[in-house]
Structure to design on (382 residues):
C-alpha cells in the first residue's frame, strides 16, 4: 500500500523529505502555538483583553483547561499546566490515513505536535455508579465560563459520560457571554431560581426563562446568555462530560427567523414554560409530574420531568428501578428522603442530587412541606 501523497516544496532544502509517519502536509488544516499556563484564568484574560485575541474554542465549561484563541494572524492554544512556559507548535491534519498524534522535533530543537483533526466529542463507554451529592452548609462553588459559578453534581462523571452542574450568577445584569455552541450528544438547562434572558439561533426574539422553565439545547445550536436577575440558579446536564464550546464570531443573535421545526443534528429546540404544564401521576404514589417535552424533541434519547409531592407520602416498601444508562434526580424544593437498595437512606434537601444505576431499586418519600424533584432519564423509558 502506497503512503500518503507527498507535497512538492520548492523551498525545501536539497535532499529534504518528509517521514512516512507524518500526515500529508497538503491536508494540514490549522497551526496552533501551545502555551502552558500555570494561572489559566489570568492568562486567558491577558490574551483576550490586553492583546485583543478572540476565543474560538474553550472547554470544559465548568473549569476550563484549554482555550484556543486567535488574532493578529496566529492561533494560540492555552493549556492549564504547571509546566514551564515552553512554546510548542501544534498542527491539525485532515489526512484520513493519519490516525494518532505524533510528537516530532524540528532541526532547531522546537517541539511540534501533529494531531488528527478533532471531530467533536468522544462518548466514553457506560460506567454507572451510585452518587449522592448533598449541597451541604458550605457549597463548593468554582469559577467557570463567562463569570458563572459552578457546583459539580457528579464528581466521578460516570466515567466521563455525563456532567451535571448547579450554576449560579449571584449579581444580576448583563452577562459577558458571546454567541457560541456546544458539540454534544445531549444538553439541557433548567432554571431553579431567578430569571435569565436568552437568544437562540432561528428561535425568534430573545426570551425570559424563569424559575421552573427549561430549554433543550440541541447539538450545535448557536445561543447566547444576555442578562439575568440577582441570584440566578440553573441546573445543566450534558453528555459527554467533556465537550468543546465553540465561539461563532460571524453570527449575530437574534437571527430574525422563527423556525421551531428546524432540525439541529437530529434534535429540535425546546422551550418549556412551567406555567402551561399539565400534571400526571408519577412513578410513586402521592407524587405528580409534568413532562418538559424533551422526549419527543430528542426522538426518545432523553426524558425530563419535574415531580412534586401532593401531600405526605409513604412508599411503604414500594420501589422502582430503571434499565437505562442514566437516571439523575435533583431536589428543587421541599424535604424528603431517598432510599436506595444497598446504599441506605438519604435525607433530601433543596440542592441535593443523586445518580441511581440501572437495576437498582429505590424509593422517594416527601415530608410535610412538599418535595419537588427534577428527573432526567437517558434514554426515555417508562
Amino acid at each position: 500500500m502506497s503512503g500518503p501523497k507527498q507535497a512538492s516544496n520548492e523551498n525545501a532544502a536539497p535532499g529534504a523529505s518528509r517521514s512516512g509517519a507524518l500526515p500529508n502536509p497538503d491536508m494540514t488544516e490549522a497551526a496552533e502555538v501551545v502555551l502552558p499556563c500555570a494561572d489559566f484564568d489570568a492568562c486567558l484574560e491577558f490574551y483576550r483583553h490586553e492583546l485583543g485575541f478572540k476565543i474560538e474554542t474553550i472547554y470544559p465549561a465548568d473549569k476550563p483547561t484549554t482555550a484556543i484563541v486567535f488574532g493578529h494572524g496566529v492561533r494560540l492554544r492555552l493549556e492549564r499546566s504547571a509546566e514551564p512556559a515552553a512554546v510548542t507548535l501544534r498542527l491539525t491534519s485532515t489526512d484520513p490515513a493519519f490516525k494518532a498524534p505524533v510528537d516530532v522535533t524540528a532541526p532547531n530543537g522546537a517541539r511540534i505536535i501533529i494531531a488528527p483533526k478533532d471531530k467533536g466529542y468522544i462518548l466514553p463507554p457506560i460506567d454507572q455508579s451510585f452518587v449522592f451529592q448533598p449541597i451541604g452548609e458550605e457549597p463548593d462553588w468554582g469559577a467557570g465560563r463567562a463569570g458563572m459559578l459552578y457546583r459539580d453534581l457528579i464528581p466521578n462523571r460516570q466515567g466521563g459520560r455525563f456532567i451535571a452542574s448547579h450554576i449560579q450568577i449571584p449579581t444580576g445584569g448583563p452577562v459577558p457571554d458571546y454567541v457560541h455552541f456546544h458539540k454534544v450528544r445531549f444538553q439541557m438547562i433548567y432554571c431553579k431560581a431567578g430569571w435569565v434572558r436568552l437568544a437562540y439561533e432561528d428561535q425568534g426574539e430573545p426570551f425570559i426563562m424563569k424559575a421552573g422553565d427549561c430549554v433543550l439545547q440541541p447539538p450545535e445550536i448557536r445561543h447566547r446568555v444576555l442578562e439575568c436577575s440577582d441570584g440566578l440558579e440553573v441546573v445543566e446536564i450534558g453528555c459527554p462530560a467533556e465537550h468543546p464550546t465553540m465561539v461563532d464570531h460571524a453570527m449575530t443573535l437574534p437571527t430574525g427567523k422563527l423556525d421551531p421545526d428546524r432540525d439541529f443534528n437530529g434534535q429540535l429546540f425546546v422551550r418549556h414554560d412551567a406555567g402551561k404544564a399539565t400534571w400526571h401521576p408519577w412513578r410513586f404514589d402521592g407524587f405528580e409530574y409534568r413532562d418538559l417535552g424533551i422526549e419527543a424533541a430528542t426522538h426518545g434519547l432523553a426524558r425530563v420531568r419535574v415531580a412534586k409531592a401532593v401531600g405526605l407520602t409513604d412508599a411503604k416498601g414500594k420501589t422502582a428501578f430503571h434499565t437505562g444508562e442514566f437516571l439523575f434526580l435533583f431536589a428543587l424544593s421541599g424535604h424528603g428522603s431517598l432510599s436506595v437498595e444497598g446504599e441506605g437512606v438519604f435525607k433530601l434537601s433543596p440542592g441535593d442530587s443523586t445518580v441511581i444505576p440501572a437495576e437498582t431499586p429505590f424509593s422517594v418519600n416527601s415530608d410535610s412541606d412538599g418535595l419537588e424533584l427534577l428527573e432526567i432519564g437517558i434514554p426515555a423509558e417508562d
Summary: Confidence is low (pLDDT under 50) at residues 1-17. The radius of gyration is 24 Å.
